[in-house]
Amino acid sequence: MAYISNYQYYTNNGNIPEDANWGSYQYVSLADIVNNFILMYVGNDKLVNNVDRWTILFHAKRAVQELNYDALRNIKVLEFEMGDNLKLVMPPDYINYVRISMLRGGVLLQLTENRSVMSATAYLQDNQGDIIFDSNGNVVVGQSKLDILNQEQQLYTGTGPYNGSYGWNYDGNWYFGYNVGARYGMDPSYANSNPKFTINKAAGVIDFSSGVKNSFIVLEYISDGMENGDDSLITINKLAEEYIYNYLKWALLSNKYGVQEYIVNRVKKEKTASLRNTKIRLSNLHPARLLMSLRGKDKWIK
């Protein structure tokens, strides 16, 4: 980015928002990355030549995505209040979640993922078990029975072994968990009293159990750094700038006809080494921070 004065950095020249430039010196824009690469690495006397700008831009975006998945891990945080449907629509730039927590009593309680199937597409069928179609030949879809597991449990006061137990009342029928008698083989990863959630990637939603109703949920997730397709907003940390250049050289030369294999292998090694250095730089492994962590080994557990 271009250098700016201290007044412009702290006050944005009196414009709103005043914090628009705060921390901006840490990053370099995607446009600057592409321009610098064309200026310094592309030419008739350079290793890379006869390359279109749009080709460089494509591979630069791929490099940014790979960095966000593997090294940068710029975590975005979203807070919302859970409604009655117990569903959260994934943010538009959602790639994968880091942690999902529930705010209770001023403390963030980490929720655990239930990897069991909690939702399904229910095809409507007639009395003979045949699938029902509409006038356009499409299958008529109803509500899945699995959706009852996301509803709030109620106290059952009827007859039978489940009297006094909590279950789900769905269309006049009661459903219960396996809570009668001894329980064996509990998975320690699910031995948690906090509510649970499931990821429905196909539907683009996160389903929660009834325990999060009317609570605040904090979603920490990883984005690909593409900023919803706005190239002017894409930035790269300067600690990873060298990796972007090496990635571009490798991507362009490995897809170009007539380039000797030893040259491709050389630039590939440079890319791998720069990625390793980038991870080390971004890990913030400073001696003072390591010392504070090591001091914890002397703490007595009472």
Q: Major sheet: size, sense and barrel closure?
A: 4 strands, antiparallel
Q: Quickly count the helices.
A: 6
SSE ordering: HEHHEEEEEEEEEEEEEEHHH
Estimated structural class: alpha+beta
Number of domains: 2
Number of strands: 15
Poorly predicted runs of 5 or more residues? none
Strand content: 15-25%
Tell me the radius of gyration. 27 Å
Which shape, going by the Cα principal axes?
Answer: extended
Strand order of the largest sheet: 2-14-4-5
**Could you tell me how far the N terminus lies from the C terminus, measured between alpha carbons in angstroms?**
53 Å
Walkthrough of the structure:
This protein has helices at 6-11, 30-41, 53-70, 241-254, 261-282, 287-294; strands spanning 27-29, 75-81, 87-89, 96-104, 107-110, 112-113, 122-123, 141-142, 154-155, 166-170, 173-175, 196-200, 205-208, 216-222, 235-237. The strands form 5 sheets. The chain has a 4-stranded antiparallel beta sheet, with no helix packed on it. It folds into 2 domains: 27-73 and 226-284, no CATH class; 75-222, no CATH class. The model has no long low-confidence stretch (mean pLDDT 84). It is of the alpha+beta class and 302 residues long. Helices cover 26% and strands 20% of the residues. It has 6 helices and 15 strands.
